Every structure is written in C-alpha cells, then in structure tokens.
Amino acid sequence: MLMAHKIALNPNNTQATYFARASGTARFAYNWALAEWQRQYEAWKADNSLPKPSQAALRRQLNAIKREQYPWMLEVTKNAPQLAIMQLGEAFKNFWAGRAKYPKFRKKGVHDRFSLSNDQFSVKGSRIRIPNLGWVRMRESLRFTGKILSATLSRVADRWFVSITVDTEEPPKRRAENQGEAGVDLGVSALATLSTGEKVIGPKSHKALLKRQKRLSRSLSRKHLAAKAKAGLSLRQAIPKGVRLPVSENAKKARTRLSRLHARIANIRQDALHKLTSDLTRRFPIIAIEDLNVRGMLKNHHLARSIADMSFFEFRRQLEYKAGRRGGLVVVADRWFASSKICSVCAVKQDTMPLAVRQWTCPDCGTIHDRDVNAARNLLAFGLAALSRSTASSAGREACGEGGTGSGSRTGVKPASVKQEVSARTTYG
Ligand SMILES: [Zn+2]
Question: How far is the C-alpha of 280 from the C-alpha of 278, rounded, in Å?
Fold first, then answer.
C-alpha cells in the first residue's frame, strides 16, 4: 500500500534558498506547460492532423529548449520541471475523470513545492540527501519501511516539509475490537455523533484561533489599503496590471503570522480528524456514514463554515484507508437518504426537520430524540440493510465504484479501498 509521510525539515539557509528556487522552477515549468497545452489544444481543435497535447511531449519540448531559453533551470534538479509537468498531466487526467476542476496556473507563494523521483534523493535516519545540496536534516525519521517512490518538498507558512511516498509491505493491522457496528453523523454541533450515543467534540482551541485569524487578516488588509493609498490608488480601485504595491516590513510580518496561524489551524483540524478516524476504525469493523452533498451544503452559509472545517472528504478518505488496513467496511449511505427526518424507533418520516431543531419528540411513538444520535442510528440501520442486500448479490459490490462526488446517488457498499492513502495529487511514476 502506498503511504505518504510528511516530515518537517531543518534546512540551512543555502538549502532553503535552493528549495525556493526549485519550487519557482517547478511553478514556471507547470505554468509554461499549461499555457502550451491550451495553445496546442486550440490548434488541434482547428486542425485535427496536429498532435493533441500530452505531458510526455511537453516534457520533451521543454527539454529541447531549456538550455537555450531558460538556462537558469539547470541550476536546480531536473526533476523540478519534469515532475511538475507530469503533475499537470495528472491534473488533466483528474479533470477528465470529473474528479477535479480544470487545472489552474500556479501562483507564487501559494503551496510552493517541487518533487523528486526516487533516484534523485536518499533517506538515512533522520536525514535526506539531495544531489548537489547534501544532507538536509529532518525532524524525525521515516516511519514506514518499503520501497521509496518519490518525495515532494513544500512550504507551509515559512517552514519546509518533505512528504515521502513509500510502497509499504506492512503486515495487516489487527482487526477492529468488534464493538459492533456504528453509524456516524458528522454534524454542526459536534464533530461527530455515533449511533452509540457518543458525541465527539471538535478541538476547542479552534474558536479562539479563528478569532485571532480574523483579527490578523483585518490587520493585513488595513496594511494592504495603506499600500494602495501610498501608490496613489483609490481604495476601491482594482490594482492595474503590472503595478506592484509597496510591501512594508510590517505587512510582511503580518503575512507570515497569518500563514503560520493558518497552518496551525489546519494541523489541529487534521489531528482531530485522524484521532476520530483511528478511534472509529479501531473499535468498529463496520461503519456507516452519509454521503454528504457538500456542494448543496456550502450554499447554506450557516453550514458552510462547519462543513469546510470538518472537511468531509478527508474524513471519508481517512476512514476508508484505515478501515481497509484492518479488513473493515465503510458503508456510505445514499446522499438523499433522509437520515435526520426518520424516527429511528418507529421509522416514520417527518416532513420537515429544520436545522435549528436539536431535539424532537416523535409524534408517532413518543420517543425523544437527539437529532444527531437519531441520524447516526438511521445511518447504521441503512448501512446494515444495504450490506445484507449486497452480500445477497455480490454484484452490489461492483455497483458503487470509487465516486466520491460525481457519480449520482447510488448506495456504495464496498470493502474500504486500500489504495486511498495517497490521493491523486501525490502519485506518479
Ligand atoms: Zn417514532
């Protein structure tokens, strides 16, 4: 199974400068290839005898001209431009498959990164060796053993990380403790509610940090407005192309503080999700969840924050690969399944169930329900019913595919996919 381990780096100044330059080269190559791709595609549309663009052809094309036109590319590893163009190929593949949006141009300072294939680096203990750069210290050693496939170095806030992809041959994890099955409702008031009645509250520090984040971004936008005024632009005016606003030292500092805070919030979130999914897959061999219609929910402003915060897709991805390692099952209920409107005791469906209603009494059987626990119980019942149907006809297993967002409203019942640990954005070669 492919596993990626992301480790913080302690580069010296020379190394950090090299990373920044290699990221710049990767970004340039990616953007060059994307522009060229669009041009060649238009040309092909006009004249079908021309070749369609491809990442392999674009790599050859760039190789042929880089010595002449972009000699500075030779100052960093040849992997930086090459793998960036391969990633563009992946981005197009994901776009055609309906998994991602049309590839965008990379921007400086936004997820700066470059990748290395396994012949361009080696790992020993808590150090990674990159040709022409020497050993770079890592904050910990690689946790997985197996064949190392590739590495991506990326900047988060003002720190550098390496994500190393390993094809592990790890022994299967112990099976779940078998505390039965669980339905899990991801919610607004709690991070998750289980059919057992448990509520998992999200990280608490979060709210205070979000407040700080608001304050910092206000302070940064004040500095931005001040810079606009200084450049003689009116406050509402868009910045004309080619005009660069002066950036004060304080603005730089504020930006660093803000991006560090973003990174910290993301870490806290990711950590909470990992704990939740590890705990669930350790305890329950069968887990039923809902296929949230995230797009619909993001339109609802009240929900937008919490859904985005909890990153449902990340939750499902983690749950599936972790269950896969223990031979467990994740059952995904139809996204139109009315998990909160049905009474989990008498199965009568209510017409409406406004989000504000956190507790209700079933008019038909008199049971007092906690909204989220009721939803989790319905999900579990739905999941178990779907499972028994699919074991009756094993064809049901084939019916679901891998689709997360796109593929309609079928119920997915499947052994948790094993190959999901490394998502499309990191695999190649
Ligand atoms: Zn009832």
Answer: 6
